[in-house]
Design goal:
Multidrug efflux pump. This protein has 441 residues and is mostly helical. The chain has 17 helices and no strands.
């Protein structure tokens, strides 16, 4: 597979070329989530609440998977920047090995302890609890294949080639659009049908990645498995994993608080989160672009380009996040009614979007800064910020629900995002921008 040199060319053009395929993939994922939620929403608030409840634990699995995705992505990008092909192969092998173990262990956990995980939330709705477990159990094998698809996409991004991942994600979306109504309504599997269609799509995507990647994503038996490479990937990924696991656990604790307000509140938050994900189509693309761009340029010791790329990505992200914030403030109910008709759920979801609208710019600051810190091999910096301020959501929620009810939870989420974005940018100024001045780059 052709390696794209990110250390040459006009910076803003390189960042844009890197980000667009990732944004396209995010758009496809958003479109899939939109279609999936439209079909599931037709089953009612209970069905939405079932998927919302189980998605918390599925998200925990993805958080753990970031151990290998982040670590391998950094090392592969830096190896490419140094033009060390043997190192690149060894890190890809190490990533595949770690991914295999995690996929088997975590996938099995969803199947065998899923009932206990759902029971922890105390939903007190038999139908929601039953469907949530079925959906969670079927996500065991889904998790395995999604882990590899995510790793493969990240490795391709490290090579500076995101177009193949975009095409494969488009295939997955097309399959889901076709299969969702078949399994949910025609075969009458309900909520379980959404999981079955996702499983089939991910298996096909997994196969296509291996076939179309010119062998770069396959395990290289000549390179073997280097224990030191495994350790380095784990060390790099651990801070970000700790951050994401904590983030997910806190969301689970928040979900338990939300559940005390009824299944409509769970459904409202789920729909709000799905709509909010439109923000991450662009900002998530910028995060991935900045990470890959920074990784190669850091390996090549071209530090001026890193700074220029960061500033360019930040400007694009802030403009976009301001537009999204306005949409969340003034168009929330029309957006929500695309998914659901129950008025109480609509009101809850609208309040969620109104609150998080005020934190969108700060989320951009956080994510673009995370991409830079990850690219230079310092994921511990954003991880520390996230650990500290995400943890504040629990006490803030418990305090704010007394005067504001369930809206107090949404306020706590917005406040923590504002704090995270502010400190991420502050640390960039202190730790990175100042360093540029010191070495006169």
């Amino acid at each position: 597979m052709k390696k794209i040199d990110l250390t040459e060319g006009k910076v803003i053009n390189v960042i844009t070329a890197l980000a667009l395929p990732i944004m396209g993939s995010s758009l496809l994922q958003f479109t899939y989530n939109l279609v999936d939620m439209l079909w599931v929403g037709g089953l009612g608030s209970n069905a939405v609440a079932s998927i919302g409840s189980s998605s918390l634990y599925i998200g925990l699995g993805y958080s753990i998977n970031s151990l290998v995705v982040i670590g391998a992505g950094i090392k592969v990008a830096q190896g490419i920047g140094r033009k060390d092909n043997n190192q690149v192969k060894e890190y890809i092998n190490a990533g595949i090995f770690i991914n295999l173990l995690m996929g088997l262990i975590l996938g099995s956990a969803l199947i065998f302890v899923g009932k206990e995980l759902i029971g922890f939330l105390h939903i007190e709705n038999v139908v929601v609890e039953r469907d949530a477990y079925y959906y969670l159990a079927l996500n065991g094998p889904i998790l395995f294949f999604t882990f590899f698809n995510t790793l493969y996409a990240r490795i391709l991004g490290s090579f500076g080639n995101n177009k193949l991942a975009l095409k494969i994600n488009a295939l997955g979306l097309a399959l889901n659009i076709i299969l969702d109504p078949m399994f949910i309504y025609t075969f009458k599997f309900g909520v379980l049908g959404a999981a079955i269609s996702t499983l089939i799509a991910n298996i096909i995507m997994f196969i296509v990645y291996l076939v179309k990647s010119s062998g770069i994503l396959k395990f290289n038996f000549q390179a073997g498995i280097d224990k030191n490479k495994i350790i380095k990937i784990i060390r790099l990924g651990l801070p970000m994993v700790f951050q994401r696991i904590l983030f997910t656990i806190i969301n689970i604790m928040l979900a338990k608080i939300v559940a005390s307000f009824g299944s409509d509140a769970i459904a409202g938050q789920k729909i709000g989160l799905e709509i909010e994900s439109v923000m991450y189509m662009v900002v998530g693309g910028l995060n991935g672009a900045v990470s890959s761009f920074t990784g190669q340029n850091f390996g090549a010791k071209k530090f001026n380009r890193i700074k220029e790329g960061y500033n360019g990505a930040l400007k694009i992200g802030i403009i976009y996040s301001l537009i999204i914030a306005l949409a969340f403030l003034f168009l929330n109910k029309p957006l929500i009614r695309l998914f659901i008709r129950e008025e109480n759920t609509i009101m809850i979801a609208a309040a969620y979007l109104q609150m998080v609208a005020f934190s969108q710019v700060f989320s951009t600051l956080e994510m673009v800064s995370n991409g830079l810190f990850t690219g230079i091999g310092k994921p511990n910096i954003p991880a520390t910020i996230s650990v500290v301020f995400t943890a504040l959501r629990i006490p803030m929620s418990l305090i704010l629900i007394k005067p504001f009810g369930v809206n107090g939870i949404w306020i706590s989420i917005a406040l923590s995002s504002i704090l995270k974005g502010s400190f991420a940018y502050l640390l960039y100024c202190v730790k990175v921008k100042r360093k540029y001045k010191e070495v006169k780059i």
